[in-house]
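ok posting inputs for the flavin-adenine dinucleotide job
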Amino acid sequence: MNPLNLPRPAWMTEELVLLEEQADRFLKAEFVPHVDKWNDDHMYPREVWTKAGGAGLLCAMIPEEYGGAGGTFAHEAVINRAYSFAGFDSFGAQLHSGIVAPYIWRFGTEEQKQRWLPRLATGELVGAIAMSEPGTGSDLQNVRTTAVKKGNRYLLNGSKTFITNGQHANLIVVVAKTDPKEKAKGVSLMVVETDDAAGFRRGRKLKKLGLDSADTSELFFEDVSLPADNLLGPEEGQGFVQLMKELPQERMIVAVHAVAMMERAVALTVDYVKQRTAFGKKIIEFQNTQFELAACKTEATIARAFTDQCVERFLKGELDTVTASMAKYWATDTLGNVADRCLQLFGGYGYMDEYPISRIYRDARVMRIYAGTNEIMKLLIARSL
Ligand SMILES: Cc1cc2nc3c(=O)[nH]c(=O)nc-3n(C[C@H](O)[C@H](O)[C@H](O)COP(=O)(O)OP(=O)(O)OC[C@H]3O[C@@H](n4cnc5c(N)ncnc54)[C@H](O)[C@@H]3O)c2cc1C
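and the output
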């Protein structure tokens, strides 16, 4: 899909164009007719995961030997954009396929990869990553959740909040201290299969400003006993390094998503102002409308160009965390600006839930906050000065 009629980026191969068409067809048939209802219900159903898995839209960058599609980050980016163009910005699939599954693929032992990845690819397992806690979000070195080794098992204790996929998830990567005396060096990633985990409890599905159908939730772990081999990777204390290594990818997922939302916002607004009239004219005929949309289209185009350049570099293994942080911060800030200006051109209808621009405006807000706040992005960028 190409709402702004921009040329295809160099990373977009013929195979990816076919994937984009396939994803678009599937989402239009299976998801688009239901997205409004899911938002009204404040929850999308569990079967969305198995349907996406059945259509090959989960774990696209995971090798085929582990049940994935054997693609690259470019495949993830194409699918990520397709969900957004389908108006399904609250689906936590980008996190499942682009963050949780890659943690297991890159850092898991062979046995862990065989155990979890094929079921993540089908949607039998829904992934979540539980970092944030009531007392700490940005400052992850100070998580209070602990995983204390007793014999050949770990006892996991702690509370997490704001967790995407929190109600559906049954495979949760939990950031915990295996050595509470240490800061970063004491952090490990523990994998919890929740279906049989005594002591695990889901808390509230949190009410939010946007992402209505997303099951962002609290999670509680009380003496959850885990086999020693649910520690991600071969040794303790690697969690912080593992988190840091995945940062560029996480940030690119958010940047790509933000750009798709911007493109859709501009396209929807152009359509609207060509139909709506005031003072005997189409809204598009007012110079203010033209200037506003000219500015929004320019910002969306620049965001797309920079993000595409970052995707290109990422695919070559050349994207550093600082540049990825620039993409995340700039694309999401710009999206906020573009969504606001586009909404204004809808007048009162822009404030109404039934107009997708209102949802884009609300859903966009969190992107400046999650995956590392934009202030943390600037902090990282500033360190490179
Ligand atoms: C819808 C949604 C989904 C989420 N999904 C997940 C998820 O799946 N998993 C998960 O673990 N978390 C998730 N989060 C949590 C999110 O990652 C955190 O909210 C975010 O990291 C910020 O942490 P905090 O809310 O504790 O804010 P705080 O860390 O308390 O920050 C508050 C403010 O202080 C600023 N600040 C903090 N430190 C500094 C500093 N050093 N310099 C300058 N300013 C600073 C921040 O930028 C922010 O503006 C989600 C959040 C939301 C809203």
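notes: The first helix runs from residue 14 to 30. The CA atoms of residues 47 and 123 lie 9 Å apart.
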